[in-house]
Design goal:
14 helices, eight-stranded mixed sheet, 32% helix, six-stranded antiparallel sheet, 21% strand, 467 residues
Length: 467
């Protein structure tokens, strides 16, 4: 029996006074950046304010988008960086920073290969809303991407002896007389402050989807929405960067995810892969009302126009087999069951006649490969016909903040005037501009690895220039 891997954070007694590079945040971006920098010879440490490691990355379920990969070709999918670019640009309302987007879409396949070289293999495909082709990569086990990625990266961190300190709150970035960032001050669990010098700092602190204060400031209409974010997603990196002259971008662009189960103590995001593998959405009347794989923004708007402002995901046992996350949703009581569609309808208090008619019509559309009602063209590989049948009640919730610290494609934090703030780099959700006004599913995990690697590489290049 294989022993379960358990990562132990580094004892605070080993927190040094100086490192070449400090990475703030232990989500996908931070772990990737630290590992990449260590491979390039940097003396690096990760600082995490929470007691748990992994940030919002651990909650990701669908996969990692990339184009022109070997996995796609093995499945007969001929993709291109340009098609990936166009889907993301269109999905972001054509408000995406094109410099960041070009780098992102042309480096995601390299990121897939980099992960594979570390035993983090993503060789299965699904599709998410707004994508024209299957380019959402996930493990062959179809396990949720977040936990799989974080566990794999932590294994490599342990092998490379990269220190990761938890319960350490960075409260200030330090600057030299010329404005160059050269360290941090941190609050330790004892309540004491400690100064740590560093030749460069990477912000990998995530977004502000769990900050009522910042949502109230930039999107007051969403301040009281439930959130899918872990409690640490409070925009710390944004405040740290601002305090040393970093610019911000797109702070009013906040994504509401359409499919979130909210009837428990915690709001659970129901990953887009459920729809990508064939699920449909029905309203309280048992009827479809939207192309389920339209952009998150459009699906959210359609749900919010319903009288109940909520809907049901409807799928079957065969679809369940293609999305392992459903096992977790079921385990914690989010999934309703029915041996037949009529029984499922009764369980969720929908008119059985309507639900049966809706699913029957949908199954015919899948057979014909033509959704004459809402124009859906993806996620139609299998119908909803193999009992038992399942349903999850969902409604929109705050999910992702597209705005954040202004960076260039080299992951350098920029001042308001567009010039680099030397010594400071950023990537992942803390950085704004890449996604425009709407992030497509599968792009956030790709962003963490693409820009985590870039931040690590460019920070090391900067370190070499100092010597």
């Amino acid at each position: 029996m294989t022993k379960k891997f358990i990562f132990q954070s580094t004892p605070l007694s080993k927190l040094a006074d100086h490192y070449d590079l400090l990475v703030i945040g232990s989500g996908g971006t931070g772990l990737t950046a630290a590992l990449q920098a260590k491979e390039l010879g940097a003396n690096v440490a990760i600082l995490e304010k929470m007691d748990k490691i992994g940030g919002n990355t651990t909650r990701a379920s669908s996969g990692m988008n990339a184009a022109e990969t070997d996995t796609q070709l093995q499945q007969g999918i001929i993709d291109s960086y340009q098609a990936f670019y166009q889907d993301t640009y269109r999905g972001g309302g054509q408000l995406n920073n094109q410099e960041l987007l070009r780098y992102f879409t042309s480096h995601a396949a390299l990121a897939i290969d980099w992960l594979a070289g570390k035993g983090i293999v993503l060789n299965d495909l699904t599709i998410t809303g707004g994508m024209s082709l299957k380019r959402t990569h996930r493990p062959s086990s179809r396990a949720p991407i977040g936990g799989y990625l974080v566990t794999g990266l932590l294994k490599k961190l342990a092998e490379n002896k990269i220190p990761l300190f938890t319960n350490v709150q960075v409260n200030r970035l330090l600057q030299a007389a010329n404005g160059t960032v050269n360290g941090v001050t941190v609050m330790l669990p004892t309540g004491t402050n400690k100064k740590i010098s560093a030749s460069a700092v990477i912000l990998a602190t995530g977004g502000f989807g769990a900050s009522h204060q910042l949502l109230q400031k930039f999107r007051p209409d969403l301040a009281d929405y439930p959130t899918t974010n872990q409690p640490g997603a409070t925009g710390d990196g944004i405040s740290l960067a601002q305090a040393v002259g970093g610019g911000l971008i797109d702070m009013d662009q906040v994504q509401v995810h359409p499919t979130v189960q909210q009837e428990t103590d915690h709001a659970y995001l129901i990953g887009e892969a459920v729809r990508g593998e064939g699920a449909i959405l029905v309203a309280a009347d048992g009827k479809r009302f939207v192309n389920e794989l339209d952009t998150r923004k459009n699906v959210t708007n359609a749900i919010n126009q319903l009288p109940t402002k909520s809907a049901y995901l409807i799928f079957d046992s065969r679809i369940r087999q293609h999305v392992k996350a459903v096992d977790f949703y079921d385990q914690i009581g989010l999934v309703k069951h029915g041996a037949t569609l009529a029984q499922l309808a009764a369980e969720i208090k929908i008119a059985p006649k309507n639900l049966v008619a809706t699913v029957t019509a949908w199954n015919q559309q899948v057979a014909d490969q033509q959704d004459s009602d809402f124009g859906r063209t993806t996620g139609m590989e299998r119908d909803v016909s193999v009992g038992p049948f399942l349903a999850i009640h969902i409604a929109p919730a705050v999910h992702y903040t597209m705005g954040g610290v202004r960076i260039n494609h080299q992951a350098q934090v920029l001042k308001e005037n567009g010039t680099p703030l030397l010594g400071l780099f950023a990537g992942g959700e803390v950085a704004g501009g890449l996604h425009g006004n709407n992030r497509l599913g599968g792009n956030s995990i790709a962003e963490t690895v693409v820009f985590g690697r870039q931040a690590g590489q460019q920070a090391c290049k900067y370190l070499k220039q100092l010597n």
